[in-house]
Amino acid sequence: MVNLGDIAYQTVAGATSTATHGTGGREGRPGRRHRRHAHRHRRRIGVQCSATEEPEVFPCARVGVGAIGAVSQVTLQVAPAFNLRAIEEPMKLDDVLANLDEHVDGNDHFEFFWVPHTRWALTKRNNTTSDPVGGRSRVREFRTSGSSRTSRSGRGEGGQPARGVDPKLARMAPGTGKVEYVNRSYKVFASPRHVRFTEMEYAIAREALPRRSGDLSAWLTRRAST
């Protein structure tokens, strides 16, 4: 796949029915051309749709969550296998926000996770490369994945520490340091979750992110004090 969401546990039907996506702001990349064809059956009526066939149904099918029928067949656009060079490192949140356009437009894929109640963010830059796989041992891979994912996921409602998680855990995130490695694309895009977590997604304009992140931080602080 030219792009994947970052959770390793996905199915084709689930991904296509929930608009699952990865990161990437560069126009013209293969992953930005949606060529999934979905055959759906509802009340014994078969509907085939794509970006050019039944185009008014296609956007609904891509995020229908099963509302317009069951998916019976899906045709996916794929690409030749490729490697990604990943650079993962903590950065000051203010620096990330101040240079957000540079990060997004200067990399094939860029994402960051803010650590609540701190001014730190965990960043990840992925770029296509012809270099061979290497740069990180399996032990380091587990430790880095475990510590960063736990710090991202170990917060409960309103930024409160989740049950059974050390309240100081999030502040340990910057200590993971910078990690750079090359691996098969699907192993870089998606990663396992070592803790249980709940997730929601909202879409806002990129230019509004600095202001909205400040609003979110203030809201979490208020919730944590009540």
What's the short version?
The chain is built from 7 helices and 7 strands, in the order αββαββααββαβαα.
Write the SSE topology.
Blueprint: H1 12-17, E1 37-42, E2 45-49, H2 58-62, E3 70-75, E4 83-92, H3 93-98, H4 100-105, E5 109-114, E6 120-129, H5 138-153, E7 179-184, H6 185-189, H7 209-224
Antiparallel strand pairs: 1-2, 1-3, 4-6, 4-7, 5-6
Describe this structure in words.
- The protein has seven helices and seven strands; from the N terminus they run αββαββααββαβαα.
- The protein is of the alpha+beta class.
- The longest helix has 16 residues.
SSE arrangement, N to C = HEEHEEHHEEHEHH
The percentage helix is 25-40%
Instruction: Please report the distance between the alpha carbons of the first and last residues.
Output: 45 Å
Number of individual domains: 2
Poorly predicted ranges: 28-36, 40-44, 146-167
